[in-house]
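Listing S7. Sequence submitted for prediction.
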Amino acid sequence: MDYCSRPKSSYKSLPALQKKKKKNVVVPPSPEEQPPVPAALASSQAPADSALATPARDSGQPEPPDAIGGQPTPSVPAQAPGSGDPAASPPPAESSATRGAPEGALGQAELDLLTFFLDDGAAGGELDSLGRWLRDFEDRATAVGLSLNRGKCRLSVGPGATIPEALQGIETCPLDEIQHLGVPCGSPEKMRVFVEEAAKGAERKMRMIASLPDAHVALTLLKFCAGFVSVVHLMRAVGAVFDFAGIDLATQSCLATITGIETDASAWALASLPVRLGGLGLHSCADTAAIAHIAATFDGEACLSSLVTPYVLPHAMLLDEDDTFLASLEDPRLAPFDSVLEKIQNVLQARDNYGGRGQKVWSATVHDERRKALIISMTEELGRSGQLQGSALALKQVQIRARIQSCSGQHASAWLYGNAEADPRLWLSPAELAVAIRLRLGLPIAPTPSICRLCGTGSADVDGVHARSCFSGGRRTRMHNALRDVIADFARRGLLAPAVERPVFSNTERKRPDISYVRDGTTVVLDVAVTFPLQPSNPQYAKRAAEKPGGAATAYATAVKEGKYRGIIDNEPNPREWLAVPLVVDTFGAWCPGALTELRQIARKSALREDRTASAACQDFFHQLSFQVAQGVARIVISSGGARPDEAVHPVAGGSVTASRVFLPGRTCSLAGQPRSQ
């Protein structure tokens, strides 16, 4: 990107604002020297807390014509001293301030570029024209109590240019070092250096995150504060011309440091998928840069006519002449996705970028296609390896699809990145997190099989299949009871007066549902259950889970729980006044549809009696439930011996904890208990 500037000037705001505002001055090179304008310049984002203070204007004064195109601009509400919210500015399309000086004071066509985004501004043109404009700008600012701080302006000129008197005192910078809104706009070499420095900064941030003692918190910070999210604005600006693979490698390394998990190619490809598709949401920058830039180009194209004059436009950003845009279109990472390329072609013809949502729409399509291709490649790799054959190979392939489908179920992954409104204790220990991530990505949890320490007879395999199927040791019962108690607590907060494991049927006292309550004249009985969709003894569950998220839970609810209560309710005096709802969840967190419906009703009931929305209540509710499943399964696997625990004592603040060592290649994590006094 070659034609842009980083805002470096400010002027005193109105007395009511008491803060400095920025104004930037840029002089472009001559048309012969001018390189293409970056595609994402017009759509660059400014900080949400920026404010644009515009002087008050008499209502009778006519609106000035546009200094760029010569057409009247839309009316932009002015901020008078002490009135309104200074941050409440119009959206970018209106507040990008293609507002010039009135005719007669400054020629309409004298400036080639005049644009503001909130408090970030840029102006460009011939040196003499720019000097006259700046002098007029300062005079108008002084008239309304503003002053321009030239010490924070930057002036970019071509080599050998003579600075006129009106522009003296402004810091100059080479054209190839221009930045605007955090985006490099100079020579390709300077842009490459900028991207490399951004990658180094992201790596430093990720190393700091990886050093945090709480692994689960560190993983959350990696997802929301580092890696992809820290450079998405830069990707929208420079596209696929520069390689962002270094940031992806740093993200993968940070994940390995946090969890002790060295991911192979397939596991990392799955981890880079969105959480809703069964991944970890650690998006790949290299795979997204092209789409981000294409979407930003379409977003910015609509603004060009209001940002630059017809004199500059032919030399600026035309889609068929923008090398960066064309390079993004030809990115080989997009070649396999015909459906995405077709959508982009439709936008090229219709000039409609889904209302500014192009990046989101296209990325979602790419992620869906990548997941399908990943599942196929993982299943084909099993066949090529020769480790499994015949029915065993077919079952393993079904289990891979079932695992990824179950992890993508609604609310199945709520445990993964915490919840601001939830109990702060709902974070997994390092060992629990490592086991949960391994099970999610399909990685082994132990180097070799061993005897199950729960039942003493079964083989604790490296994939944790036996551990999740074993009923010995009481761990499954504890997980069941924890889920039951969370549901009963929310029902109690919703004034449903739940009864926990009490006889409610008139014709038998042996059947005691986990939870029962009366809602709108109907007695609702809830039966909580956890099922393992990959159990070898019942391959039908894996097939159902592979078809859709929650398939195994639905199959178990239909085959076991519904039949359990159907005969009892039919023998009640008024069967229509009874409703049995199986609340079945699989070990990956996917619920059956009937359970989702009932649980949402409980959350809404609690929200009506608490000062929060139904959406916040549902988020909190399902986060607690998802956490209990993830923690319960991880503890079962660790207790079975598959993770090879051995007792050790580790110091913490003010005491020590008893910890179980867990096998993690390259790192040993601990399942820490509560501190105990010395």
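Caption to Listing S7: primary sequence and predicted structure tokens for the chain studied. The longest helix spans residues 358-385. The radius of gyration is 31 Å.
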